[in-house]
């Protein structure tokens, strides 16, 4: 076959003037394929098709209109979604890094040596969790929740009680208890009329910190049996109790009482009871959600 | 123990219905929980009882119409799907 005559045919395939030439016969057989011709064949039709798509004014217009419509739709969805779920506020809670996560996990398990529990502010807005270990975040609770479900599946699997539906049941069960706990905390905070800057997301974050202790307890139960489970759960319950009290004391109680001075008065007493109740609910939930996993 | 999200929704609807059917003059005033009996003093912050009465009154006012809609939807769904 003749390559030199094939080349001009392939390149000028788009133009209709070439159809009068007798060498058009080569076009039909050239798709049968020699390797070099084949490569050129592949590129030319694509280039030809792309060129007509872009150069056609109608499709140009259609593409421009379609992209503007898509960006409009995306803007509308973002605006409406922002009304229900504050996306920008959520981003603050996920601004974490590895050092913060490591220190926070250590604090959740051993909060007894930490001195300063105040959240630092920067011109009236709280500092991102990356820079302040006392700030609540949503990364650890989210990861803890997912890990808890996986560990529950693992624990049930070692006892031959596993089936895929059970994972879903565990997940929705734990989620429902979390929602109930957050709603109960919100209700009690409303009834006691506490002027606090605790948002709902903060409460979700604090309620989610107990999953870390639960995971450690269940893993210890898997490795060391019931004794290990009870001992580690006891340790984690005590540390979560202390952690919650020390964190919530600064947010719920008034300034004087937070510094350790015993302030009399019904208001502060009620708030202290509320803090104790919220902190005491954590070990109860930790036991309730894990005791059926360790036999 | 095995809760689902659906049972949470059911609980929420039942509790809101329970609060909404409390009658103002036949029941709440009789036990001293009327809307006008909650406002104690104006100086200090309201106590727990005042907040609770406030909550009951606002739930009854706000949730009346949405509850009608939600209850009708529930009735239709339960009739269709058992």
From TrEMBL, chain A:
GO terms for cellular component: COPII-coated ER to Golgi transport vesicle; endoplasmic reticulum membrane; endoplasmic reticulum-Golgi intermediate compartment; Golgi membrane. The chain crosses the membrane at residues 138-157, 169-191, 203-223, 229-249, 270-289. The keyword Secreted does not apply. It is a multi-pass membrane protein. Residues 17-33 have a biased composition (Polar residues). Its main location: endoplasmic reticulum. Keywords: Endoplasmic reticulum, Golgi apparatus, Membrane, Protein transport, Transmembrane, Transmembrane helix, Transport. Residues 1-46 are annotated as: Disordered. It holds the Pfam family YIF1. It comes from the Eukaryota. It is found in: Endoplasmic reticulum membrane; Golgi apparatus membrane. GO terms for biological process: endoplasmic reticulum to Golgi vesicle-mediated transport; protein transport. InterPro entries: Yif1_fam. PANTHER family: PROTEIN YIF1B, YIP1 INTERACTING FACTOR HOMOLOG YIF1 PROTEIN. Belongs to the YIF1 family. Has a role in transport between endoplasmic reticulum and Golgi. This is Protein YIF1. It comes from Chanos chanos.
TrEMBL record, chain B:
One of its GO terms (cellular component) is endoplasmic reticulum membrane. Pfam families: Yos1. Regulator of endoplasmic reticulum secretion that acts as a key determinant of brain size. Required for secretion of extracellular matrix proteins. Required for correct brain development by depositing sufficient extracellular matrix proteins for tissue integrity and the proliferation of neural progenitors. Acts as a regulator of the unfolded protein response (UPR). It comes from the Eukaryota. InterPro entries: Yos1. This is Immediate early response 3-interacting protein 1. The chain crosses the membrane at residues 62-81. Keywords: Membrane, Protein transport, Transmembrane, Transmembrane helix, Transport. It is found in: Membrane. The gene is ier3ip1. Belongs to the YOS1 family. One of its GO terms (biological process) is endoplasmic reticulum to Golgi vesicle-mediated transport. Its main location: membrane. It comes from Chanos chanos (Milkfish). The lineage of its organism: Eukaryota, Metazoa, Chordata, Craniata, Vertebrata.
């Amino acid at each position: 076959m003749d390559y030199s005559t094939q080349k001009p045919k392939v390149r000028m395939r788009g133009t209709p003037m070439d159809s009068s030439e007798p060498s058009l016969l080569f076009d039909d057989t050239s798709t049968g394929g020699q390797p070099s011709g084949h490569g050129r064949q592949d590129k030319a039709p694509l280039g030809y098709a792309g060129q007509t798509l872009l150069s056609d004014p109608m499709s140009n217009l259609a593409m421009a209109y379609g992209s503007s419509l898509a960006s409009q739709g995306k803007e509308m969805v973002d605006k409406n979604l922002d009304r229900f779920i504050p996306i920008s506020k959520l981003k603050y809670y996920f601004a974490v890094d590895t050092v913060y996560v490591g220190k926070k996990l250590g604090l959740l398990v051993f909060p007894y040596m930490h001195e300063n529990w105040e959240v630092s502010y920067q011109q009236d807005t709280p500092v991102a969790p990356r820079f302040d270990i006392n700030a609540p975040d949503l990364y650890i609770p989210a990861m803890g929740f997912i890990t808890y479900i996986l560990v529950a599946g693992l624990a049930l699997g070692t006892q031959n009680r596993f089936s895929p539906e059970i994972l879903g049941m565990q997940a929705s069960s734990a989620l429902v208890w979390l929602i109930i706990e957050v709603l109960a905390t919100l209700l009690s905070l409303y009834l006691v009329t506490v002027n606090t800057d605790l948002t709902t997301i903060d409460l979700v974050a604090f309620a989610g910190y107990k999953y870390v202790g639960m995971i450690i307890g269940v893993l210890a139960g898997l490795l060391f049996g019931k004794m290990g489970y009870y001992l580690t759960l006891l340790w984690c319950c005590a540390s979560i109790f202390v952690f919650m009290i020390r964190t919530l004391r600064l947010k719920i109680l008034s300034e004087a009482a937070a510094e350790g001075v015993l302030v009399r008065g019904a208001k502060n007493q009620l708030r202290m009871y509320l803090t104790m109740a919220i902190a005491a609910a954590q070990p109860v939930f930790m036991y309730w959600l894990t005791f059926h996993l360790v036999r | 123990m095995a809760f689902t999200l659906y049972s949470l929704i059911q609980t929420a609807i039942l509790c809101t219905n329970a609060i909404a059917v409390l009658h103002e003059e036949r029941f709440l005033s009789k036990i001293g929980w009327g809307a006008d009996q909650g406002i104690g003093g104006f100086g200090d912050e309201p106590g727990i009882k005042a907040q609770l009465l406030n909550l009951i009154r606002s739930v009854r006012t706000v949730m009346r119409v949405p509850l009608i809609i939600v209850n009708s939807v529930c009735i239709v769904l339960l009739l269709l799907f058992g």
